[in-house]
Design a protein that fits this description.
Blueprint lengths: L10 H17 L29 E8 L5 H12 L4 E4 L1 H6 L1 H9 L3 E4 L12 H19 L5 E2 L8 H9 L3 E2 L4 E2 L8 H11 L5 E5 L7 H14 L3 E3 L1 H6 L16
Parallel strand pairs: 1-2, 1-7, 1-8, 2-3, 4-5, 6-7
Helix pairs in contact: 2-8, 5-6, 7-8
Length: 258
């Protein structure tokens, strides 16, 4: 499992961890993402925002929690451009739209978890989070035929406990480094300009395919063309993580996570 999380228990252990990871980062400069150890300064667990070691790719991601129209429009736009993305699906929406879920999978996109109830995980108990993830896992696995391994928590909300709860259920917590702001419906031209001027290698780009994001599918063709013109390719989140190589994968001492 790719782990980017280490939590200090004592000052001595925290200092030793920082020194060790700092040495690793220097030793593996060309492959190692410094964003994976920045949490050592505060001792807080952190989700994955971006993969700086991926030098020529970005991951386009879509959250879906509700909607009848936008999901298909977004899928059509991606198919027309030959782009594979990662879709974070909520359990209730997926259960109510099995044909769309199957299309997402058959089109070659990655299916990931967006939880079941759209509640902030930082406000839930560890057991409630586990139940939420298990319920969605069963739905997505039955519909897509494969198990999701990554999670974007509802509202992008997290804390140390929720990240650990997700890890215990076999999920890596993924957030984003670039927000399209499509959920605000700011205008197609605004979204295109925002993404093209900001996108860089290793980014995880947040978009939505829920009906509340009415303009996303209209902006996608120009966004995709523009990002490709910058020399970047589109991959799934899991593929993006894989580009970092084995040096990106650190198994921290479990004692430091307690």
């Amino acid at each position: 499992m790719i782990v980017v999380l280490v939590r200090k228990q004592t000052r001595l252990k925290a200092l030793a961890t920082v020194l060790l990871l700092g040495f690793i980062a220097i030793s593996w400069t060309t492959r190692y993402s410094l964003s994976t150890i920045i949490s050592q300064v505060s001792g807080k667990l952190r989700p994955i925002y971006r993969v700086t070691a991926a030098r020529n790719a970005v991951a386009l991601t879509f959250d879906i929690s509700w909607g009848e129209v936008s999901p298909t429009r977004v899928l059509d736009a991606l198919r027309s451009k030959g782009v594979r993305s990662t879709f974070f699906l909520s359990g209730p929406w997926a259960a109510a739209h099995p044909d769309v879920v199957r299309r997402i999978a058959s089109d070659g996109h990655e299916i990931a978890s967006h939880g079941y109830h759209h509640d902030n995980y930082s406000q839930l108990s560890r057991e409630r989070i586990a139940q939420d993830l298990r319920k969605t896992r069963e739905i997505l696995t039955n519909l897509a035929g494969r198990e999701a391994k990554i999670l974007r928590p509802p509202n992008g909300d997290f804390d140390d406990m929720s990240i650990m709860a997700a890890m215990e259920e076999g999920y890596l917590t993924i957030i984003w480094s670039l927000d399209s702001l499509d959920w605000k419906n700011p205008g197609v031209d605004y979204m295109i300009d925002r993404l093209l001027t900001r996108a860089q290698a290793g980014d995880i780009i947040l978009c939505h395919a829920s009906d509340s994001a009415r303009e996303t599918y209209l902006a996608l063709p120009a966004v995709i063309d523009g990002i490709r013109q910058k020399g970047l390719e589109f991959v799934t989140v899991t593929e993006l993580l894989g580009m970092a190589g084995e040096q990106y994968m650190i198994q921290p001492d479990r004692n430091l996570l307690r």
